[in-house]
């Protein structure tokens, strides 16, 4: 453990100095590769090291006896401060990329470049990340039942709330308007894949329909509702002046998907 705690910061410092010479030479996701390395590889590595180092000190080097709650509080404070620092590291990495591009071309369109992160990449990572995180917790619940015992009324009520949450979750996706139709197609595809995973988990592991697996069933119902709404949803011709769902339901919408699939299969045959 001590070797690990000494090795990580030395490795981080050496690698940071070594890669700096390649600044401005290559890009990844339209970000300077060195800045991407600093923000999304080196910073998380240092963050994990910092949490490990803090835990090591509190557990082995502090003479005062600390409870699990005390360690949790120290860890939480450290994590919040680290997240603030990490946010500014990311901001610096992106703006540094802008600076490098404008040095190469004084007329470089910085606004168009920033919109790439705002309109596509950030939304994709946020929405997909939340769905994958929820799915991970759902699958963990299948293998680790919760010690929660609800009667049938409250259990079914929680599933009703999950169904309503599925509608609102899809609405949150739909609120994001973009000229690129592939974004919503990708989101629908991801929701469909996650729903298929939940179906497969059900047939393979057969989780019981009770509150011990409430997180699995809640996510199952949420994604099922979201996928069903996604199949029939379409954008209204006129926007409502009052606060309402940003889509209307068209029961004939599946015909569009059938035509789309037919065209794709015809191209594949050719």
Task: Kindly list the characteristics that best describe this protein.
flat, two-stranded antiparallel ribbon, mainly alpha, 270 residues, 8 helices, 4 strands
In summary, what is this structure?
With 270 residues, the chain is mostly helical. It contains eight helices and four strands.
Query: Beta-strand level of the residues, as a percent range?
Result: under 5%
Q: What is the CA-atom radius of gyration, in angstroms?
A: 24 Å
Count of strand segments: 4
Count up the domains. Answer: 2
Based on secondary structure, the structural category is mainly alpha
Overall residue-averaged pLDDT value: 86
Oligomer category: single chain
Element layout with pairings:
Elements: H1 2-19, E1 27-28, E2 31-32, H2 33-61, H3 68-104, H4 110-143, H5 152-175, H6 181-205, H7 214-232, E3 233-234, E4 248-249, H8 254-269
Antiparallel strand pairs: 1-2, 3-4
Helix pairs in contact: 1-2, 2-3, 4-6, 4-7, 5-7, 6-7
Structure description:
- With 270 residues, the protein is mostly helical.
- The protein folds into 2 domains: 107 residues, no CATH class; 153 residues, no CATH class.
- 75% of the residues lie in helices and 3% in strands.
- The chain contains 8 helices and 4 strands, in the order αββααααααββα.
- It has a two-stranded antiparallel sheet. Strands 3-4 form a two-stranded antiparallel sheet.
- β1 and β2 form a beta hairpin.
- It is flat and about 60 Å long.
- The relative contact order is 0.07.
- The mean pLDDT is 86.
